[in-house]
Amino acid sequence: MIRLKTSGDSLTLAVRVQPRAARSGWRGVLDGALKIALAAPPVDGAANEELIRFLAKEFGIPRQAVTIISGQTSRQKVVALQGISEETVRARLAVSALPAR
Questions:
Q1: Model pLDDT for residues 79-98, shown as the tens digit of each residue
Q2: Domain locations in the chain?
Q3: Taking Cα atoms as reference points, which of 33, 35, 11 lies closest to residue 25?
Q4: What is the bridge-based pairing of β-strands 33-37 and 25-30?
Q5: What is the 3-state secondary structure of the chain?
Q6: Is the pLDDT of residue 7 over 60?
Q7: pLDDT at 66
Q8: Which CATH number fits domain 4-88: 3.30.1200.10, 2.60.120.230, 3.30.310.50, 3.30.70.3040?
Q9: Quick one: pLDDT band at residue 101, thresholds 50, 70, 90?
Q10: N or C terminus of the chain with fewer C-beta within 10 Å?
Q11: Maximum separation of any 2 CA atoms in the chain, in Å
Q12: What is the pLDDT of residues 21-44, one digit of tens each?
């Protein structure tokens, strides 16, 4: 199960990224973190920008509402999403083609 934490109008979640994938997409859940493949290399912040773009698109929120709180240079990251509820995030993940782990 994905670890989500709500604080005010912000929701944080743990993410594990896999840069340099053929295309960006959900890859499942690994140790409570949402695993996401990114079609960008981990160079000059390209993978972080792709992560922000991907999450904003998938959750239907503006890019400015997605912030990487920790793990800027790591595969393990903590991301904050503004203006979206935990129920909405869980529903979106349930509807997506998220592989079971």
A1: 999 999 999 998 888 877 55
A2: 4-88
A3: 35
A4: antiparallel
A5: CCCEEEECCEEEEEEEEECCCCCCEEEEEECCEEEEECCCCCCCCHHHHHHHHHHHHHHCCCHHHEEEEECCCCCEEEEEEECCCHHHHHHHHHHCCCCCC
A6: yes
A7: 98
A8: 3.30.1200.10
A9: very low
A10: N
A11: 36
A12: 999 999 999 998 999 999 999 999
Question: Cα dist. 90→46, 66, 85 in Å?
Answer: 27, 16, 9
70 vs 47: CA distance, rounded Å: 14
The length of the chain in residues reads 101
Task: Return the bridge partners of 33, or none.
Answer: 30
Rounded CA separation 44/81 (Å): 23
What pLDDT, on a 0 to 100 scale, did the predictor assign at position 98? Answer: 56
CA nearest to 21, candidates 54, 69, 67, 68: 54
Q: Which two tokens stand for residue 16?
A: 């594990």
